[in-house]
Amino acid sequence: MCNTPVPCAPYGGRPPYACSCLPPCRSSSTLLLCDATSATPVALTVVDDSVTTIGLGRAFPDLAGSHAALWSGGTLTYPADPNASAGNNGQVYRTAVGRITATPPPQCQGATGTLTVSTRVTLNGPGAGQLQDGALMLYRGTTKIAEHQAMRFAPVGHVETLSVSAPVTAADLTSGNLYVALYLETFHVTSKSWTADQFSITAQLNGCAVQFLRTFVIDCNTGAVLTHSDTTLDGRPYTPTGQVGQCTPTDNSLV
Biggest alpha carbon distance in the chain? Predict the structure, then answer.
């Protein structure tokens, strides 16, 4: 029995000789927040399309056959043309066109970023390059948005990596209206064959909103926030990397 109780110290603490003190009053509150991350990679696929889709002229006939080997990072051969009859009767630039498709994460609506494509080309001959030997290009519909031209007058055996980048939005990536095109000169003055390989395509979006939970510990008496902790939606520790704010509702108007 406590005959000479003493007051408790602030916030529920007590000196060792106090009889009893109430524990500090604490409450917690959890909010759903969004972290606008600096970079979110997006998975991309490329499927065969046609030069007519992007509006190229007579000198740029489709490369015959499937281009799937190239889009998957393998090897694709551009056979030599014996003459210019397949083109504009002066040059033939055989062209592989691919339509770019993607499904960005739902939290990336409204995000912007960069699309990058690269591939290696090798001039096999028998003829050398003449003037414009080829190029890697990106299109939005029929509008060219990026181009990297191969070296002109390339000698037989020439090896070069072509790379292009362009700003894109999440809407661009879901629209199916982005295209990659690789054309190579298979006849101009002389016949020549090419090999294309090491194709890669990447996209990163900035400002994607990653959802997470922030739990606050609050002093019941004062209402002051004493501390907080962040976790993923499934309870794992989370550290925000971008600007934290309220989440914007997903736009389902097109679903």
Answer: 113
> How far apart, in whole angstroms, are the C-alpha atoms of residue 40 and residue 241?
11
> What average pLDDT does the segment 46-59 reach?
97
Q: Which is more confident, 9 or 237? A: 237
Place of tokens 């072509």: 162
Residue 198 half-sphere exposure, CB side, CA atoms within 13 Å? Answer: 10
Residues with Cβ within 8 Å of 212's Cβ and at least 6 positions away in sequence, in order, are 32, 33, 34, 35, 230, 231, 232, 233, 238, 240
Summarize pLDDT for 173-227 with one digit per residue, the tens.
999 999 999 999 999 999 999 999 999 999 999 878 888 899 999 988 888 989 9
* Both tokens assigned to 227: 């501390």
CA-closest candidate to residue 68, choices 108, 44, 90, 96: 96
Question: How far is Cα 192 from Cα 173, in angstroms, rounded to an integer?
Answer: 35
Give the span between the Cα atoms of 241 and 247, in whole angstroms: 15
Contact status, residue 95 vs residue 136, Cβ threshold 8 Å: no
